[in-house]
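Sharing a chain and its predicted structure for anyone who wants a worked example. Both blocks are below, sequence first, tokens second.
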Amino acid sequence: MAGRIEYKILKNMPEYNSYGQYYYNDDDNLDFLDGSGIQTTFKSDDLFTRITDEGYINADDSDGMPDWRPITEVFIGNPTDINNPANIFLQKYYEFGSTDYIRTSAPNVVSLMVSLAENNKAFNITPMGNPYSAGGGEIGIRVLNWDWTEGEYEFSNDFVSDDVNVDGNYINLYGDDNYLTHQYDSSGLKTIKATVYARETDNKIRYKHIEIKIFLGLDGVFVEDFIDIGGPDFTYLPWPVTSPIIGGISKDSKYYNSVESIINSNPFDEKEKFEKYFAEKAFYNDQLGDSLGDSDIEQVRAFKGGSTDMNYLLGISGQLTLNGFNPHYKNGEGEYWNGEPQTGNTFPKETSVGILFIDESEDQLLINNCLFEFNCGDVNISNMIDTSGNGNKGILIGDYKINKEQPGIKSRRDTIIDLPKTDTKNGAM
């Protein structure tokens, strides 16, 4: 959102089960922000890495196994070069609609890397190398679930002590391929459950179960359909791509005011993240034009090239000067357009302006340059056919009110959609 602090939380967890935020300051440096959940609506929206449990198998604290703190990096980009400036990290919120937001949207392939730091509970990280570099064991990470949800199976000692390579979700942190990848097909908050553990040659194991929360945005191609395209149950106006719009939505409309009211009251619970996304997307959508008020529009055409002005359409191009132009004069200086064909001071009667279909024009260049043509008197319930033959579709949108009464109850259209009307009385033609 505009003005939202970009941050990640508990990235390095200075204290076990502590709760605070790391955020990116104006210099794009990572700072620490005291207090919890300041920039998130719900605590469950926070992005973090935390240790949920730790212990030993076939060992105990007295065995002197090296201690460490796992530092996670979850990102999209080049997993063989963690410092590549093109990499973009997922324990951070990006401004809605920004390039970085789109880059971190689903579907996408995500990489996970883990490094070690001294477990001194200090804020500043002290990196450490492989505690088993002398060959006395190995340390790795195994992912239990890339998209865990409440109620699904949890960790067990069997998970740690099983053959670590059996499921393909294990890596040796100091092996040749020190990263894991996973493809996410859906967006939203994701919880990764994993275990980082050290295994000595005598099968003594020290483990730390971790929970990693990341966020993937909603790809711009994922939209709710309009009624006539196949999705009758849309609530917020869908808008997949930048498109031409005639007229638009007024800031005084029922639609805009009801969406604004929903955003301000924030009636969403923790399970309504997608619905909240659609509400925010609708509120910040600046591509819905602006209302013309009451108007009569008979026909709409658009041409490419930039040279098809009204002079050309009326067949008088080249006869009117740009300087000192007066529409009542033939050449801007002397002779009136008096409508007398014998003097040549009249508009051509046969032009594209007076025909319903552009393909009836004798000007082939004009036909070729026509991007779309809509005759607004020919409406099929809520859409119009592109009579230029280019296969476009005109969608009618109108005003309506949206209501969301409380958390846990879905948003709904509270009024019928007041679509533009067609009429033959006092029309444009």
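Comments welcome. Confidence is low (pLDDT under 50) at residues 1-21, 34-39, 320-326.
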